[in-house]
Amino acid sequence: xxxxxxxxxxxxxxxxxxxxxxxxxxxxxxxxxxxxxxxxxxxxxxxxxxxxxxxxxxxxxxxxxxxxxxxxxxxxxxxxxxxxxxxxxxxxxxxxxxxxxxxxxxxxxxxxxxxxxxxxxxxxxxxxxxxxxxxxxxxxxxxxxxxxxxxxxxxxxxxxxxxxxxxxxxxxxxxxxxxxxxxxxxxxxxxxxxxxxxxxxxxxxxxxxxxxxxxxxxxxxxxxxxxxxxxxxxxxxxxxxxxxxxxxxxxxxxxxxxxxxxxxxxxxxxxxxxxxxxxxxxxxxxxxxxxxxxxxxxxxxxxxxxxxxxxxxxxxxxxxxxxxxxxxxxxxxxxxxxxxxxxxxxxxxxxxxxxxxxxxxxxx
Length: 364
Ligand code: FES
Ligand SMILES: [Fe+2]
Description:
Blueprint: E1 17-23, E2 33-37, E3 40-46, E4 53-57, H1 75-79, E5 85-86, E6 89-91, E7 98-99, E8 105-107, E9 126-129, E10 132-137, E11 159-160, E12 165-170, H2 174-178, H3 187-191, E13 197-203, E14 206-213, H4 216-219, E15 228-235, E16 239-245, E17 250-258, E18 264-273, H5 283-309, H6 325-333, H7 342-349, E19 351-353
Antiparallel strand pairs: 1-10, 2-3, 3-4, 5-6, 6-7, 7-8, 9-10, 11-18, 12-18, 13-14, 13-19, 14-15, 15-16, 16-17, 17-18
Helix pairs in contact: 6-7
The protein binds FE2/S2 (inorganic) cluster (FES) and fe (ii) ion (FE2).
Keywords: 2Fe-2S, Iron, Iron-sulfur, Metal-binding, Monooxygenase, Oxidoreductase
GO biological process, one term: cholesterol metabolic process
Cofactor: Fe cation
């Protein structure tokens, strides 16, 4: 497993940005959920009082009990009706200290007198959108630099909402996945795309790929298949949104989150505009959309299969007719270094790049 240091990414082991940590469905239960990302353990739950999502560091400051690990035997859980969530707070199963959504201990049943300020766990900035829970991860502990993921089409009744494909763990550093945003050369051998026009652009925290051409996996190869246009953008280091036009109008979503230094968890989903042109989606639309999401998942599985078995690319043998891999790798470094060094990386890469031998992207 190659690490962030092996890729010489910067000062931090894990990048700054918004990252998916669960689907909303996973916390639509009365129990807290134990999750692990960024090499640390968390307790994630939905407050019973307000429905608010809370993410706390997992280990109780008293004696380091996991606040969300499965427990069926503590009377805190048994008397709580099978849960240790109380209102928007959570109670430790061991000695029953209770923590509010801000992470501060607000009740110790056997203790009289003030509760020490140090009786707290870190509470993380979380948001819920697009059927998922997002955390702002930031080694400097700063405020979010851009908005959490959202799409106006999500709440539009003429679009079929997705159900996430949880692709599980990938034992590769996220750098290998990020490389894909500028990987012009793999589109034909892996996805069967006959790319007609292609370009990348880097702009601040965005890395964009625009391309068009027939695509065997997604739109078929009978010689009459429509040209697929994709405009794909990394919004920071963990969230990829791709607008697809060709067969259906759709938005592809791939999100990955570091688990350990050198492994990630990955989700895939597809938002599809009513394939039958309905103002409000029907059952038939949902069936067609689910089938299209499955072909999209299979297209992504073509990348995934290679990533599963490859060695880390610490020094690639890149050609001028490859996409701008080194630019993308510099772009990615902005998230592994302090904010005040951001311009150093962004200034080196902002702009449009076209691999040697192909035409730049245009819509027509
Ligand atoms: S370990 Fe959590 S209350 Fe004692
Ligand atoms: Fe790919």
